[in-house]
Design brief:
It contains one helix and two strands, in the order ββα. By secondary structure, the chain is α+β, with helices and mostly antiparallel strands. The protein has one domain. It has a two-stranded antiparallel ribbon.
Length: 66
């Protein structure tokens, strides 16, 4: 299984940068959507070379705790 990495940087002005690696193909968009739900609107994104690679099977499980 590939190593998945998420780098999240919150600037003093509240701007959030998210870098996702370890996903092949457009599956990273699913992970990005999960983070968008948490932090809010995504103003832009820059695909990496992994984005253009063949896709793989990925399952994302969300758990809500109170």
């Amino acid at each position: 299984m590939p190593n998945r990495e998420f780098e999240i940087v919150v600037a003093p002005d509240g701007h959030v940068d998210l870098k996702i690696s370890g996903y092949s193909g457009k599956r990273c968009l699913e992970a990005m959507e999960l983070f968008r739900k948490i932090v809010g609107e995504v103003s832009s994104h820059e695909p990496t070379h992994e984005f253009y690679a063949p896709e793989e099977e990925v399952r994302i499980q969300q758990e809500h705790r109170r």
